[in-house]
Amino acid sequence: MSLQHFINNAMSAWMNQDGPDSDIVLSSRIRLARNIEKFEFPTIATNEEAQEVVKIFEDAFADKVCEPVGKLELLKINDLQSIQKRVLVEKHLISHHLAENSAFGGCLLSENEEVSIMVNEEDHIRIQCLLPGFQLKKTLDIAGKLDDWIEKEIDYAFDEHRGYLTSCPTNVGTGLRASVMMHLPALVLTQKITRIIPAINQLGLVARGIYGEGSEALGNIFQISNQITLGKSEEDIVDDLISVVQQLISQERSAREALYNTSQIQLEDRVYRSFGTLVYSRVIESKETARCLSDVRLGIDLGIIKDISKTILNELMILTQPGFLQQYFGGPLRPDERDVRRALLIRERLELEMESNKRMEDDGI
């Protein structure tokens, strides 16, 4: 399989699109937690009950069309190989919990992979919508339409005073988790992030790593999301997050400008060293890859590097993860083998980009 063919067939469509404020906000996500009335929650359900829930979704929603997103295909977790499950986690389409703990779970996916509805995760239903850039309102609107579509066929577990009932008390109420994935290298380099994160926490929000709770902020990428789901409407939760994200965008842009104005040579040196590492390395670990990609992305956003597309970096952030590497190279790899193959894949991808740019230049485009 050629690298270009693999990329074309491996990447979610939304990953190669720019959205509003996409120099800083990589993606917007809305997740709604729901459970089915009169069914035990997945955390205590028997295998038979879990299978019954999957059967409900298979009969009612698989291969059916929901107007905002098109047809949804059901993937059953126990039909997937371990590498396939890992790839879905790396693309943020399913959670680690669903991949590792739910033999009788599933996932309804839209063709463009902007919508993923997890079945028998921590709750019976986890509706997730992902869009590029800063588009929380639009993402909430799509999630709401999916929620209404499902509720036409299923009675939700709901309490008049508490709202939607969920396995974890922190999700009771709206069941809403709104989040944005943000690239904040300048706030990290200027160490302002160390005072910003505690301030975010005091506002009822939380900053986590790229894969959510318990994960590390690799490549200066932070997931900012709400913690409170009870006592506020969905619209108020999203409005509060939007307000904080707008401030973070402003502070990150100011920090970038200050860095460039006061330390231009040092910043350019950092960017080009990282670019050279990506272009020439024969062995590279995932943490170093994330750091170098962050530096190069910052260089592109500031106009230091002009002939590499930001979408290449979006691709490489995903393609260099362990699951994708093993899928591309055809089977399980030891960690040291992954480091060699990761460097090879990065070199091949950047060579493809440079060859494409040269052809365009020769053609006068």
Automatic annotation (TrEMBL):
Positions with a binding annotation for ATP: 27-31, 92, 126, 177-181, 208-213
SUPFAM superfamilies for the chain: Glutamine synthetase/guanido kinase
Recorded coiled-coil stretches: none
GO molecular function: protein arginine kinase activity
Reactions the enzyme catalyzes: L-arginyl-[protein] + ATP = N(omega)-phospho-L-arginyl-[protein] + ADP + H(+)
EC numbers, comma separated: 2.7.14.1
Activity control: Appears to be allosterically activated by the binding of pArg-containing polypeptides to the pArg-binding pocket localized in the C-terminal domain of McsB.
Keyword Kinase assigned: yes
Motif RDXXRA motif of the pArg binding pocket involved in allosteric regulation per record, residues: 338-343
UniProt keyword annotations, A-Z: Allosteric enzyme, ATP-binding, Kinase, Nucleotide-binding, Transferase
Pfam family, one: ATP-gua_Ptrans
Residue ranges of every copy of the Phosphagen kinase C-terminal domain listed in the record: 24-255
Top-rank EC class of the record's enzyme: transferase
PROSITE patterns linked: PHOSPHAGEN_KINASE, PHOSPHAGEN_KINASE_C
Free-text function comment from the UniProt entry: Catalyzes the specific phosphorylation of arginine residues in a large number of proteins. Is part of the bacterial stress response system. Protein arginine phosphorylation has a physiologically important role and is involved in the regulation of many critical cellular processes, such as protein homeostasis, motility, competence, and stringent and stress responses, by regulating gene expression and protein activity.
PANTHER family reported for this sequence: ARGININE KINASE 1-RELATED, ARGININE OR CREATINE KINASE
Family from the record: Belongs to the ATP:guanido phosphotransferase family.
Name of the protein in its database record: Protein-arginine kinase
Organism of this sequence: Metabacillus fastidiosus
Gene field: mcsB
